[in-house]
Write a structure and sequence with these properties.
This protein is elongated. With about 170 residues, the chain is an alpha/beta fold. The protein contains four helices and eight strands. The strands form two sheets. Strands 5-4-8-6-7 form a five-stranded mixed sheet, with helices on both faces. The protein has a three-stranded antiparallel sheet with strand order 1-2-3, covered by helices on one side. Helices cover about 25% and strands about 20% of the residues.
Length: about 170
């Protein structure tokens, strides 16, 4: 019983001393959000590898890619740039995209630059693109060029089929 009184009397003293003691500050951990940000890996300003295609400008008749002006429509696959035959969106057919039947590796996405305005993609063309194992995005050529730049910079296998910005149906 005497032991119980001793312990009972010591307990409040122990609790008071623990309460009065200053707690050491909890150290702040560095934010992992910044450490794993994709934006650290994407460089949209300088230091693009020489073999990587970058759309720098567009106008009514063509595009400037890596400092070279290209007139007319272009087809880009990875870091390969080709002149492309369609002059307006209605001329974008299975034949004009037939390169994707033999191209390996198949790009994961095809960005269709429709000219000045977004155009609807017909069901036959949709089916063909999907049957090749690609996704597609149909946007105006200005946004198509910048989307291609970002996806290509990320290292993704990307294709872009672009009509000049001045084209409208």
């Amino acid at each position: 019983m005497a032991l119980r009184q001793k312990v009972g009397g010591a307990l409040p003293v122990l609790l008071r001393s623990l309460k009065d003691r200053k707690k050491p500050p909890i150290p702040q951990l560095p934010s992992l959000r910044r450490a794993f940000s994709l934006y650290d890996q994407i460089n949209l300003i300088n230091k693009v590898p020489d073999d990587q295609l970058v759309f720098q400008e567009y106008d009514e008749t063509g595009f400037k890619v890596n400092g070279v002006k290209y007139e007319g429509s272009v087809l880009c696959v990875g870091n390969l740039l080709l002149s492309w035959s369609p002059k307006k969106f209605s001329e974008v057919t299975l034949d004009s995209l037939s390169i994707f039947q033999i191209l390996r590796p198949v790009p994961e996405i095809l960005i269709l630059g429709c000219g000045k305005y977004i155009e609807p993609v017909g069901p036959e063309l949709k089916h063909f693109i999907r049957s090749m194992g690609m996704k597609y995005e149909a946007v105006d050529s200005r946004n198509a060029a910048s989307t291609y730049n970002v996806l290509n910079e990320e290292g993704r296998i990307t294709a872009a089929a672009l009509l000049p910005y001045g084209v409208s149906s």
